[in-house]
User: Fold these one by one.
Assistant:
Number 1:
Amino acid sequence: MSSSDRPATRIPDKPSLDGIEDRWSHQWASDHTYSFDRSATRDQVFAIDTPPPTVSGSLHIGHVFSYTHTDIIARYQRMTGKSVFYPIGWDDNGLATERRVQNYFGVRCDPASRYVADFEPPFHGEPPKDHQAIAVSRANFIELCEELVAQDEKIFESVLRRLGLSYDWSLLYTTIDEHSRRVSQLAFLHNLSRGEAYTQDAPTLWDVDYKTAVAQAEMEDREVAGAYHQIAFHRSDGADIVIDTTRPELLASCVALVAHPSDERYKALFGTATATTPLFGVEVPILAHHLADPEKGTGIAMICTFGDTTDVTWWRELNLPARAVVGRDGRFIADTPWITDEKGQARYGELAGRTAKQAQKLMVTMLRESGELLGEPRPVMHPVKFYERGDRALEIVSSRQWYIRNGGRETDLRAALVARADEITWHPAHMQHRYTNWVGGLNGDWLVSRQRFFGVPIPVWYPVDPAGNPDYDNPIVPSESQLPIDPSADAPDGYTNGQRNIPGGFMGDADVMDTWATSSLTPQIAGRWEADPDLFERVFPMDMRAQAHDIIRTWLFATVVRSHWEHGAAPWRHAALSGWILDPDRKKMSKSKGNVVTPMSLLEQYSTDAVRYWAGSARPGVDTAYSEDQMKVGRKLATKLLNVSKFVLGLGQPETIGAATDPIDISMLAKLAAVVADCTAAFEGFDYARSLERTEAFFWWFCDDYVELVKTRAYRIPADVGALSAQVALHAALGTLQRLFAPILAFTSEEVWSWWQTGSVHRAPWPAPAEPAGGDPELLDSVSEAMAQVRRTKTEAKLSQRASVDLLVIEAPAELHAALVAGRSDICDAGSVTAFELREGPALRCLVTLSPSPTTAGERPPTS
RNA sequence: GGGCGCAUAGCUCAGUUGGUUAGAGCGCUUCCCUUACAAGGAAGAUGUCGGGGGUUCGAAUCCCUCUGCGCCCA
């Protein structure tokens, strides 16, 4: 750039961070600074797969933290000349939104209700506690979902813009929009046609409150209080077999007793003997299985259909009948044909209709009365499976669901999916173990159907036979051009809606897909797979997936599964996992503890760049303490960048653009070149924090030592060769520093860049680590050390740094003399030194004679 | 019970293949209104590198073990 096309500098008198975010985010929007250039070929593109936040919640500091990390990488890549594909989406489909809609409007979805046009919900936020939710039709419910997510998404967008995330907002998608529904259904139909998706009636983890199936990945263990109950079963010879159970209420669904094959106590009974259940008199076999734990209770357990996942294994592997007693509403069902004993039927009659909790209480009473409860229940804390969003323990019910094969039931597929992870570079590397560990521990395929409403419908219908039974094994599928479809509203080709749910007609699948079944396709959704093949080819496989490490098992794994099936490839080259934000006491931040801080207030209080600095200081993947102190440091750094830029640019620009000539200046530039090389290497390894650390350390040295040292020379009027050299070096260093900081301090860098450059710093080239000819980075070390000693002498004398020095004698080894001679004039200027003398000595040591009262540094041992 | 990670100054953290006397910032103490910055600057003090054992000429770093903490899973 020649000096003629430089804009005149326009430096404010009092630079400030206030208002900087609004100014630049508007400028970036109107300049399309972050637009993806889709004419770029694949090798010039850096494509990022970003996590769409769940809009039904609120953005918290953890989002700010991890989203900033991704943005820092995006900004670096953009500066290296890449066309950065950096989309954002909103994850608005799914249960979280439904729950928020219910709570916000005071409604609930009832598919049997009729649609009401222009429906007005009873409330808009904060319905009273005693409000009974109003039943609304599925269509009305979905309308309300759409209304609320649109509202929530506006707020999200304003926060993310304020945070300075350099998305190309024209690439925005939402997981419920038409395009996403189409992609999601299309991918599902591909899975179906290739045999990767299937439907099956099987025991399913079930949340009785949400009335939906739950996938393995959404389930969690919680320690809850329970009690062991010793219950006596009876053998035909009159002897009792005592079992221990925490779920006596399931006694009616008992299908067998089981003990370990090597358990001497029960060995003789296996396969030959039977026992009858207490109260109900149902005869069940006594069987052996290695999962029975001889150490637990009495060593023999009752198998119920189904009390827990072990029951499911036993039921499957021992070929047992299903005798379910808990219905999908969590209440005991009425119909139990396997109980033939009259007394037993009467007893069961009392249980029917009750919840598990009520049934347990009643069951204990009945067992106590019959004398079949031995002793008293023994309280115990034990792990119980919950849906991660649920409040009541999961039940296992038998139901028809859709699954996508994910290796949970096939060794070869599992191995292939584990191997896919080797195609990805993990940051940090150890995160790959979590993936491998999770995939290795799967014990079933991916359940993708959910009995909910606000989601992408499973895009199939079923023929209904003349007897009125749907044929689940031969689903009717739409053509791809029809997508997206809603089988609850649309009729398949060759049918009319009048044939819905009648013999000889059809039935629409009522379920929607799991939210992960759609979000696992974010690369395909954002990259406009099938809709825009030219674009997709330029961005897929993507360069980078960014996400937090807790959803490796869900989002990351599911995305790999879909890509494996659809493209036979890993979806990205790099996976960057960010850590958690922890409380100062190192607990995970949580709402319940009341310690969640709203991001907007922090951005306002400390400035966005200060918060970005805090995020950028944390090493990739490392859990990090929430620290406003770090934000204060970031604010100080940003302010310093403003001030030093003002100072350097205020020196006046050198008339001619030459090279620095003074060895001092060349030394500084050589040091800076090493920093640039470090930062570049760090960023290539996705380690933004290391780059920041290197840049920051150099920057403070630059401000405190170098600028102080040369400023008198740079000010010299009229400018001589030395002044010009200093000015050239200062400007060069400033331009480099502003660009090194740009990925982190996005707003401040842009502000100071705008004072003297055209165009955005975020579109400027990342600095090249070109070493100036003949630069000796160590030359300045001796000079800095000498200056530090002079400053120390003044501080210890409790004098101002301006205090003048009559005589400065420097003792130093001969090899340092050249450096000190080169720095002599600058040292004298910066230290207000009148006379300067250089002597031979074993170590660098300054003897400082202050005026008017002389002092020497020789009174204490020199530090160097 | 399994997988992964963490433990370094009062606090938050660096410390890259083992290599002088272990670093930074915050905080603390002292001083300085100095013409880029007082929302600033100059300087100072502060460590059993979680405990124990081992390898090595040499260990915060490698190995073993114990303890404590966190996340994910069973």
Note: Residues 331 and 356 of chain A are 7 Å apart (CA to CA).
Number 2:
Amino acid sequence: MTDRPDMPEIDRIDRAILRILAADGRISTTVLADRVGLSKTPVAARIRRLEAAGVITGYAAHLSARKLGLGHVAFVEVRLSDTREAALLAFNAAVRKLPEVEECYMIAASFDYLMKVRTRDITEYRRVLGETISALPHVASTSTYVSMESVKEPGISQI
Amino acid sequence: MTDRPDMPEIDRIDRAILRILAADGRISTTVLADRVGLSKTPVAARIRRLEAAGVITGYAAHLSARKLGLGHVAFVEVRLSDTREAALLAFNAAVRKLPEVEECYMIAASFDYLMKVRTRDITEYRRVLGETISALPHVASTSTYVSMESVKEPGISQI
DNA sequence: CCTGAAAAATTATTCGC
DNA sequence: GCGAATAATTTTTCAGG
């Protein structure tokens, strides 16, 4: 297995550091150092290195969607009328600006995109679908699947 | 609009605090206080209150999936052979234990669950699908949609 | 590349107003 | 909620192995 330029060397201790920081982004270097069994100096250096290399992209508070009244999750399949490069780029750029769209992936299937949309309730979802999503560049049609229950989800970091 | 017991009162300043903390989970109370135009004392108190109320559920480092060699994303529709309560609970509990399953929702549609699965590459996905997902309790059939491009996604906080 | 300790900087907390 | 003083932590630095 050869090195890839975009994949810095990450050893066992780096992984331990990442795992702990992923679970507690506010842990101090002191405590983290204890937990991985090293002194603070190398741990601080490793964190800096992982940040500089773009492995750690940032730190965020996780918020409870329910407590914020954003409990409605729907998935939307989107089909475009034009899938030439320029159309895709226009669609991508427009989607990235929508706060209600939490995730969006281009899919190799009978539809072109799959998006996760978070709203207050189904009424607001209906509004977002009709007014915003359908108005995205080159959208031909959509199919919506509504979540009845969240079995596993990351804490939201958006408000 | 009446208060809901599970939705604490969140005013304009709380929202500002949450928005900033969601974007930078490591910001200090001092800087945060400046940004929201209050002194540190009430800002620290508000953060404690939001944490205690469960609005802020935690803090996490965001990691680059690509740099960690976890760039493969697939969505799987899962149909169960048994959708009685006990079967659903068994499925839910089993799914929550799988690190590859980043998200999972119960869906009101022709399939029962939609899951987002993250792996190293399609080879590993095939292995996870065949060995792990298909072996989850009561799984009757699955359909997979592979992401070709991530247009918008939250930083992963899992390793 | 790590240890350990000292120094410097920041941060969180407390309290009277 | 303010602002200052105090207290506690944290980050950084550096000599040494």
Note: Residues 17 and 23 of chain B are 10 Å apart (CA to CA).
Number 3:
Amino acid sequence: MSKQKIRNMDAFSAVCGVSRPTLSKYFNDPDSVKRSTRDKIEQALARYDYRPNIYAVNQNRQTTRNIGIVVPNLADPFFSEIGREVELACHDAGYSPIVLSSHGRPGLEASNLNALWSLKPAGVLLAPFGRASDVSIVEAFAKDVPVVLFDANIEGVGEAFIGTDNNQSVDLMVEYLCRSGEPPCFFEMKSPLNPNASKRRQAYLESMQRHGFAAQILQAEGEGWDFEAIGSAEGGRMLSENAFATNTVLCSNDRLAIGMLSAAYGLGLRVGHGPDCTLRIAGHDDHPYSRFTCPSLTTIAQDYSEIAARAAQTLFAIIESSESGSQRKETLLDGKLIMRNSA
Amino acid sequence: MSKQKIRNMDAFSAVCGVSRPTLSKYFNDPDSVKRSTRDKIEQALARYDYRPNIYAVNQNRQTTRNIGIVVPNLADPFFSEIGREVELACHDAGYSPIVLSSHGRPGLEASNLNALWSLKPAGVLLAPFGRASDVSIVEAFAKDVPVVLFDANIEGVGEAFIGTDNNQSVDLMVEYLCRSGEPPCFFEMKSPLNPNASKRRQAYLESMQRHGFAAQILQAEGEGWDFEAIGSAEGGRMLSENAFATNTVLCSNDRLAIGMLSAAYGLGLRVGHGPDCTLRIAGHDDHPYSRFTCPSLTTIAQDYSEIAARAAQTLFAIIESSESGSQRKETLLDGKLIMRNSA
DNA sequence: GTAAATTATTTACGCGCGTAAAAATATAGC
DNA sequence: GCTATATTTTTACGCGCGTAAATAATTTAC
């Protein structure tokens, strides 16, 4: 059953009756050879175990078909989901995706870019940390390699940016909350790493002003990526201290909201929009678990698939046209209001 | 600021005053050259931008310093966490880890192994699907490359296996539940992919018999990786039909438990071990979100770090001694009971 | 059937590095 | 200071493949 192994392309050329340069053409683009020779090659490929040595293949190329995908933290479901979509898109387009997580450590982002550099990738899809990113390294990298940013923007870096329009999405939620009950307070991390956080805060302030309500922002102490723990500890503290001016809290993201819901449950507070409820909590991102919180979480859905698809397509277009000089494009997608039971 | 780029090792040899073969030695093992030459090299490295072309480096080697890490699904926090630990362990040991997720699709596991094959890895850490894995491909792969399995075992495949002792962990939980209230029913997927699921069912049956109670197993319909959704839909249905013989449910894993907790909340059931509670729910795995469910989930903690560390160390030992002939080792680690509020 | 166009083969070189062998140099021991 | 040992340099070859140029074979067009 196990097919005979072939050492190299010369040996394979011998057994399949096609010259080595033609084989080389075939492996670089199967459509570039005549149908009959292609058939001959593929029949031999079925009989013998041969695949080109990728190291030898890539040695001379100044660029490969590798695409790097760098995300801040694969443990965060948002990135694991969007990373998956991007990876599959690259694969479908005939590239070799390489997903790298920085595990929540900005220092690893730089390491990952350095590691990628050695792989001579055709392009990179990068969701940067933002504020915590080593911008000089990202910039230097983006000068050498086509880079498309997603999720978090760094002004002027990379060929393009695809993300969610926080102004639109937060306004959608604020409008809904104001219309259906008391105006929301805003709950966030004191020193958020992600630039979307500050965009959302700003959007909240502007939206509240437009609706003619007083804004109130409450900030949780704490560092790192344990958002649920921080949301639970700090949110719980604020709830028990009656720190919120209204009975409605808009959390900067779902993971904070999940923590706060847990704290509210522990305090015996009834959360939701029912008549017997004393608190409304809303989130942002449509985290995979937000359907299963108690109560289920009203939130904003970012269009993961669309962000992933657009980012990938944008990068492919740049790679295939090798046009790095054109105007940097920023694409902002709309969020959707997901009404569940928590608000 | 940007350092001058050096084309290749010859050019670098010229600017740093060390011969190319010595440089080659240095890059393969910095300790293999004299201190003074090492200093000379590293000073030049600081002044010039040079790194060896990894494709040229790996072209002739029959094995590289790459280590493949293949997990069934990075979207599952268990694997994203354990994958992270393993990745860092490889990195710390001077290897180049490459994490590949099969995204819940057994077919991708085979593709991932094939892709890894081309990378000539020194070894692979594999958490296989188990029942759904293409065992013949995994076997063929493991004959060529040192493979250490973790989480899920495939008898006789790979050099070693590291996982959790489901007998011990389930018994721990059953014992606790029986001692502190009504004996547990067991809730699981009807056709689970993961081999741990059937081990846990078996362990539950044996443990209940030892304790002298009647066992009851309830199985949720549904395929795929949406465990929370399945747990919620099927668990909710069973709860509302009073399908459970006792007021205590042990779920095969935390994700099912999270779904069932959500359903119980929707049904207005009070879950926990307090006097006013009518239902106890326990899980298994200590999922990162199990601290934040409502109520927080009593569960079994698998020792992620220890599994990761042991798996990595086992692989390193095999690689470095190049002993593939020795006895296949199976290591089972104990789980810990994490008592929270749900049971 | 013949000329033109397409495709394949032959030949040959180079990429960047690993690595082996012999010669040269540096270091350590006494 | 001298020998024995450790380390580096010199020289040279090969890895597996990309790729260019010239030639040969095949296909297409008419």
Note: Residues 112 and 118 of chain A are 10 Å apart (CA to CA).
Number 4:
Amino acid sequence: MMVESASETIRTTPSNQNGVSSLSSQSDGGGGREGGSNGDTNGEISPVDLLHLQQQQALQAARQFLLQQASGLNSPGSNEVKQNPVQVPVSMAMMSPQMITPQQMQQILSPPQLQALLQQQQALMLQQVQTPRFLGSKQLAFQQQLIQMQQLQQQHILNLQRQGLVPLQPTAAMQSLQQAMCPSDLQQLWKEVSGVPTAEDALKQAEGLDLSTNSSNSTSAFPKAASAHIPLHSLPNGQSHTPKRDSHEELSSSHPLYGHGECKWPGCEALCEDMGQFIKHLNNEHALDDRSTAQCRVQMQVVQQLEIQLAKESERLQAMMTHLHMRPSEPKPFNQPLNLASSGSLLKRDSEAYPEGLPHPPTSAATPITPLRQGPSVISSSSLHTHSHSHTHPVGPIRRRNSDKYCTPIASELAQNCEFYKNADVRPPFTYASLIRHAILESPDRQLTLNEIYNWFTRKFAYFRRNTATWKNAVRHNLSLHKCFVRVENVKGAVWTVDEVEYQKRRPPKMTGSPTLVKNMISGLGFGSLNASYQAALAESSLSLLNSPPLVTPPSAASLNMLHVGHDDVSSTVEQVNSNGSCSPTLSPQQYSHPVHVKEEPTEVEEDSRPVSLLAGVTHSLPLPSDERDLEEDLPTEELE
DNA sequence: AGTCCACTAAACACTC
DNA sequence: TGAGTGTTTAGTGGAC
């Protein structure tokens, strides 16, 4: 409700994916977000005034947000909340992740304001969750947080600068943002907010964060073992986003949360003489509890937003590169597949799912917030993979078909967010079938007993440590229902295996085009018009084949490479992308490039026309895995012909 | 609106 | 007998 109303009044143009450089868009958006408080004065004011206006807007937005945080959420009668279009319940999104996604936030807010709100939110959340213990050091913690946030922001800007996405001279928008978020202003904001006599409510709200799905409002399912030793805010992609003050810090400390003798947990900065003391402190003060998970979530939101923005900027860069270096009539096989793989479906998702910039309500109430990232990674891994935590995965409000339709490779996702799913009581955005299949293929023998599947589920996902009756029943149901799961009698009983042929048949692409058309599209001639669902399905299915040596069907590695490489984080999925190299000795690229789904009508496929350059262009960007699996010896050759 | 797909729940049979 | 396993059906809801 609130989101919708906000979205009706807060609209950034969907085409405006310029996160940092568009002053006018910022102003436009800001004007709208302010509910007309600033009026439409863009055309008359000077750039300096405009800059000032931006600052004011950002400040007001942040202020309103903070006010809402402090009082609105617990004051149902508050008219402000309902009337002010800027009242985007960002924090509500955190507490009830189903309500608003980062994409929605991004659609609603211009990037600078988004960042402003985000940073404010982070500060506030930290403050909220720390209130009972650190009441006396509010200001100190807040200052610390400000510093960290600014560092984070600057780091992000530097990244963009490195990519040439933003000029070295900060744009007006950036200046505005930075100035708008200067510590004094924020402190002032904080003073305003902290005076609101609802601190307890805020605390309660923070402590009562629903960190699980809405079907579970408890975090009890979090594994105790992971409580203290896993830095929850180290992100699923493995990247620590704790701002580092200098490059030496990382070297001097063996823990990303420890440096300069201080705990780097957001807002903590407790002094620890040595690592041992720090570990002790970490275990004691930052154990797995509501406060820590809330902080973790905040940090995740921060990173998500940055990644989303980076993804958009990357997308812009891709467009620029395409424009400058590539002729539309001469698609470059190396880059084009990237668009196909990720931006194809994802952009479609972006543009179609949110055509009006309206928030896209999650479709599954049971869907948790996930560390999935939204936004296409259209930059090749070779050019951007150093920043490539941007990328690929749509934030997963759509549980059921996320992995199927939106090109979210389960292997990649799991590889990146393994720790997250292990510890967070969130439902993985994959179907049972996908998970089961992944579990089976992940096993050494590519076969698991039912109980082992159960164990895999519980081992990999905190979510499945509860409601066992439900999901176990679902697992059994899926195993029986889908032909792709084959029960094999073994010496030790029945084991389940995966029939890849059936698995691929299970989700045939909806596109009804001829195999020739498919082939042409895959060869890079029709990427632009390639049906997104088909792209996603093809990419996903291909990826899954690539990820795991098939029991039955050899993957079409070429197609899947090109489909996958663009949106996959090479660094994090290298372990999964392992059959690429291992299969190559016996199969030619042409064989590999056999599109999986064309199997339905194999006679029309002309494999010779498949561009080898596609494979060549992709393979070099796929690092060989360190733990290559053995090639399955019983590769069915019929699938290759 | 119809269809497909995924999920959930449940009943039932079989084995150990 | 009960637990675990496997199969099947029905209902529901989202996506297309």
Note: The longest helix of chain A spans residues 290-325.
